[in-house]
Amino acid sequence: MFDLPNDILYSLDELSETYGLNRNGARAYSELSENYRNQNYRELDFSQAVAYAQGRMPATYGVIKYVLERFKNTGRNFSNVLDVGAGVGALKIALRDSKVSYEALEKSESMRKVFRKLNGDNSKIYSEDFRKFQAETSYHAVFASYFINEIKDKILALKKMFDLSEKYVFILEPGTPSGYKSILEAKKIAAELDWYPLMPCATQDCKLSGEDWCHFSIRLPRTKHHAKLKNAALPYEDEKFCYVIFSKKETGFFENNTVIKRPIKKSGHTIFDVCTSDGIRRVVRTDKASKKLQWGDQL
Ligand SMILES: C[S@@+](CC[C@H](N)C(=O)[O-])C[C@H]1O[C@@H](n2cnc3c(N)ncnc32)[C@H](O)[C@@H]1O
Q: Which of 18, 42, 248, 264 is the most buried (most CB within 10 A)?
């Protein structure tokens, strides 16, 4: 459900073949990872952009699919979107079977080049730095995945996202303490601008405290090529992420009961850690229906 479509996997392989990255892709990927680990978000060269598409985009795509699916399940939708820091077009791929009109903003020339190779030439991609972007229009939704953590002027970028959107703002970040901190910053600015968090919880302040951070996880299959690039033995990877969707108009969207950890399944009962409007609670359920609930669901 969260895997990249086969034709994109095929294009990725072709790209590597054409540019000789099947031989030195692991090196380009390890340079890229090293930069991310050191929070060194310098301009990527073309081989690093291809390595990003192969090594990271399957996971960011999976997370985007997960978040879009949950949003869709609430009965909401949007008809056009600006994808800020679009990279190689993970959101574009995720939306390709929908009627949503899509525009991207991506400052890296190498990323834009790989975006076009994977998605064709039809998308509108603004090439400027988001901080200087002068929009021609506003959007129903503004979307940023794995972007806020990278940008220097986070507050300016966040305010601009809210400013450009008429209805929804989506922010997806790595499931790390630093990604979570960006989500908290976004929540603070949203509250100042009268925007409301819809998902994964509807509380303006976070109920977690101490060393804990709110995040979720999806399991993704690894292709042979992906495993080789990452020097990995397991046929799957777990991608941890944080996210928040804000709405301009809606408050009190649902009774807040978000399962914020992997449920602990025992014989005859399941233990859930749940975020409620009154704080974090541990809940034990014995009914059959609860057995199916997963991390991220509403109890
Ligand atoms: C980690 S990538 C995420 C790409 C994509 N959204 C995804 O989920 O796979 C972050 C992208 O943001 C772009 N970026 C960073 N700062 C930017 C800025 N100030 N203006 C426009 N793009 C920016 C980078 O070039 C990079 O392609």
A: 248
